[in-house]
Specification:
The chain is an alpha/beta fold. It is built from seven helices and 13 strands.
């Protein structure tokens, strides 16, 4: 199964770093964000990876080349038009010829989600999509408990979510790819449309996985602390 890493965004939330640097190349504890994702997927058995790029694509291609330095086979899909996450997968559909299933991993998150386990479940049940889900992800704001009379009875700053949360890593069957089109987003469009169409969408929950959004400067700071403190490396 091939893995697609979506790195086509402009990284506007990481400015000023991304004025001249591809978001994929932003260092996390001294290692480019994309390299951490590529190596993590390689270590879980994904040797063929497709990188979806747009802004400053040449930086990524020059640094990673064909992937042999990291022990993987890398190919690139470059789309200069804003297309949405599902639109990016639609754009590279010709590169998926003969593939019955594909893994998609967003390029601005870091996780040790059990991707092998996710793919095993996906192959076993063969739904349209199997979503990787994690628990304990904090919300980005304070949450209030408001009584009927309007009084605030409790307040917790950035509590962890109790319900499983989209890890932005998922497996798709070929029939799910038909729902991908320019301008479409997986979370807003494709997953709800699959469910509405009567397709089976399964969830794979990994309660033990760490999950880091690296889309904002404050998130990047936390990721640097996490990988430096925990001494995660490769």
């Amino acid at each position: 199964m091939k893995a697609i890493i979506l790195c086509a965004g402009h990284g506007t939330r990481l400015r000023p770093l991304t004025f001249y640097l591809s978001k994929a190349m932003v260092p996390v504890a001294g290692v480019p964000l994309l390299e951490r994702i590529v190596v993590s997927l390689r270590d879980q058995g994904f040797e063929q990876q497709i990188i979806a790029l747009s802004w400053l694509a040449e930086q990524v291609q020059h640094f990673f080349g064909d992937g042999s330095r990291l022990g993987v086979q890398l190919t690139y899909s470059i789309n200069t038009e804003p297309s949405g996450t599902a639109g990016e997968v639609h754009h590279l559909r010709d590169m998926l010829e003969g593939e019955d299933h594909v893994l998609v991993h967003y390029g601005d998150i870091l996780t040790d989600l059990d991707v092998r386990g996710l793919v095993g479940e996906h192959r076993r049940h063969e739904p349209a999509a199997t979503l990787g889900l994690v628990t304990g992800v904090p919300v980005h704001t304070g949450v209030a408990h408001v009584a009927d009379d309007g009084s605030v009875r409790g307040f917790v700053e950035k509590p962890p979510l109790e319900r499983p949360t989209n890890a932005a890593v998922f497996a798709l069957s070929r029939r799910a790819l038909r729902f991908c089109a320019p301008g479409k987003d997986f979370s807003h469009d494709v997953f709800p449309e699959l469910i509405a169409a009567g397709e089976t969408v399964r969830g794979f929950v990994d309660d033990d996985a760490y999950w880091l959004d690296v889309g904002r400067l404050s998130d990047l700071e936390k990721a640097n602390e996490f990988f430096t403190g925990a001494n995660h490396g490769h």
